[in-house]
Amino acid sequence: MVVMTLMLAAAWRFNPRIAGLGAWTLSYFFGLLVCVNLLLRAVAPELLLVLLAQLSAYLMAWLNWVGTRAYVGAAPVPRRYGVLGAVLLLATAAWFTVVQPEQTTRFTLMSLVVGTLFLLCARTIAQGRLQDHPARYLYALASGGHGLFLLLRPWLFRVGNHGLFDAQHAIAVSHLVVVESIVAIVLMAFGIVMLANEQVTLELRRIADRDPLTGVFNRRAFLALLDKGSHYAERMAFPLSVLLIDLDHFKKINDSWGHQLGDRALRHFVTVAQACLRDGDVIGRLGGEEFAIFLPNARLAQAEAIASRLRGALEMQPLRHGEAAIALTASIGVAQRQPQEAPHALLHRADEAMYLAKHKGRNRIELAASSPLPADGTATPALP
Predict the structure, then answer these.
(1) 77-96 tens-digit pLDDT
(2) What is d(CA 343, CA 325) in angstroms, rounded to the nearest whole number?
(3) 307-346 pLDDT per residue, tens
(4) Domains (ranges, CATH) in the chain?
């Protein structure tokens, strides 16, 4: 237990931003107190031992659930519920220790409460596709199995013909409980470490895929997503359109106001653009002041409408700098993917339309020619 607690504490120390990891680490600290309680049996009063054991086991399970909910982004459970549960459990334990001594009832209540909390951990982490998240699968299996065992544990300890074990098997049952607890605690700890590692991997992937200035996809990630989207559109016979966008006179903004304001202008454009897009639309920064957006399941007319909404919104929302309002406009090329058209050919048509918009005076939208380039990207020679 000490090793598991130190392992989680180290993971939390180096990854403090991972949601839920702090609560999980604290839960194992209280699990450690359960073990300490066993060492104090010979010297401490019975009531103190009972209350310490009940509170530690409850807090370990409760904090596991709190950590699990935080990890998946679920709404936090109000702390007053946790405090109320602890108070009720301690009051019940004290009653069945001092006023009406009944070890079986006390043991059963604790097993039911703690077991239910671990089952809630499994249910919470299991939301979504477990096969895509092996770490979640391990944690769900360990916490769910442990919770189920805790619910069955009072029945296993029943003595008599109605129980699975009679009195002479009590030692064997005790050994089973100890082994199950050790296995579950180790598996849950490794599951938590794997979950933390999964979050670190996702964060590194996000950093690798995102433009650090604007937060949208960088060129490499955008082209990879466009390639996947194009293959899916081809296979499912769905339309797909692309917007290629260049901010007008951006160099003048940098020269007149400085690069810091130029960076703000890029972020301002992204904010305006994202407000104009649908769920599922993908925006990326190709470089400098050039952006691209691909619109799944959008024909040319719908793509043109989105481009028009974006262009108008940008024109109506200048960048504020003190009392100054810095106008931003964009030239946009729109192209719809044609059957069997390669992604780079689609982008090339949108790029040509965008440069046509610039040539015609900027702050406008141009539609790409409907004839795509061949898949190899070379121009088709004119017929004689």
Answers:
(1) 888 999 999 999 889 888 88
(2) 38
(3) 999 999 999 999 998 888 999 999 999 999 999 999 999 9
(4) 2-209 (no CATH), 219-367 (3.30.70.270)
Residue 289 annotated in active site: yes
Average pLDDT over residues 4-21: 84
Query: Residue 384 has what pLDDT?
Result: 29
Q: How many CA atoms lie within 13 A of 311 on its CB side?
A: 23
Q: Token digits for 160?
A: 């008599």
DSSP states along 99-155:
IS--HHHHHHHHHHHHHHHHHHHHHHHTSS-GGG-HHHHHHHHHHHHHHHHHHHHHH
Give the Cα separation of 60 and 121 in Å (integer).
12
> Half-sphere exposure (CA, 13 Å, Cβ side) for 145?
16
In Å, what is the CA distance from 363 to each residue of 97, 292, 300?
A: 80, 16, 19
Q: What is the mean pLDDT of the chain?
A: 86
- C-alpha distances in angstroms, 45 versus 48, 52, 109, 324? 5, 11, 21, 74
| Amino acid at the residue 273 | A
**What values do phi and psi take at 75, rounded to 5?**
-60, 135
- Please give the Cα distance from 26 to 43 (Å, whole number): 26
CA distance 335 to 157: 71
CB atoms within 10 A of CB 272: 19
Q: What is the DSSP letter of 131?
A: G
Q: Check 289, 304, 341, 366 and give the catalytic one.
A: 289
